[in-house]
Specification:
Chain A is mostly beta strands. Chain A has no helices and twelve strands. Classes of the chains: A mainly beta, B mainly beta.
């Protein structure tokens, strides 16, 4: 079945450090790929998405490129801020009949220290 | 505009009791999803509604779980005879439905259910 494997956390970085959170997937068909973020005390928010191979999603300085050859969608940011502290979830969506439910990774807790 | 709302935000119940969780999707969104998030884990899909089509119930963990949706608006997730392993955050999401960008899901704040 479909699955998403994320880099295990927690991850602790200093402000302005470079961030990579690895995400690989297994899917039948051609999935859309997503990164969602959950800030402390808040609901899940879409961070970025990519719908086909070689697409790059970007938002708020974060980027991820859909790599079909390596079945990956790694999240990167060149310079993290304290306000980026959150839990990050990689997810995929593959049409299953009429459904397009999301399959999530287990999440990566990021803490950025000043 | 208004996002997805859920109520209650917190629910504490005793083992064996029934609970109802409510979701109000974004107006105009035809698709609605329920997920469960156990502590420290990712989200598990429970059920999906699309317009007036029959719901996809493939993620429901047992027959104690059921959900209804009124047209393309409010949905209620019901858990009967709750067990301690049902303790989790229950998240609702909606999306515009079929079409470009229709697969982007917007999540509510969740209902934290604690079964004592």
């Amino acid at each position: 079945g479909d699955s998403v494997t994320q880099m295990e956390g927690p991850v602790t970085l200093s402000e302005e450090a470079f961030l990579t959170i690895n995400c690989t997937y297994t899917a039948t068909g051609y999935p859309s790929l997503f990164w969602y973020v959950q800030y402390p005390g808040e609901g899940l928010q879409l961070l970025l998405k990519a719908t086909k191979a070689d697409d790059k999603g970007s938002n708020k300085g974060f980027e991820a490129t859909y790599r079909k050859e390596t079945t990956s969608f790694h999240l990167e940011k060149g310079s993290v801020q304290v306000s980026d502290s959150a839990v990050y979830f990689c997810a995929l969506s593959v049409s299953s009949g009429s459904a397009r439910q999301l399959t999530f990774g287990s999440g990566t807790q990021l803490t950025v220290l000043p | 505009g208004a996002g997805v709302s859920q109520s209650p935000s917190n629910k504490v119940t005793e083992k064996g009791k029934d609970v109802e969780l409510r979701c109000d999707p974004i107006s105009g969104h035809t698709a609605l999803y329920w997920y469960r998030q156990r502590l420290g884990q990712g989200l598990e899909f429970l059920i999906y509604f699309q317009g007036n089509s029959a719901p996809d119930k493939s993620g429901l963990p047992s027959d104690r779980f059921s959900a209804e949706r009124t047209g393309e608006s409010v949905s209620t997730l019901t858990i009967q005879r709750t067990q301690q392993e049902d303790s989790a955050v229950y998240l609702c999401a909606s999306s515009p439905g079929p079409g470009v960008g229709g697969d982007t899901q917007y999540f509510g704040p969740g209902t934290r259910l604690t079964v004592l």
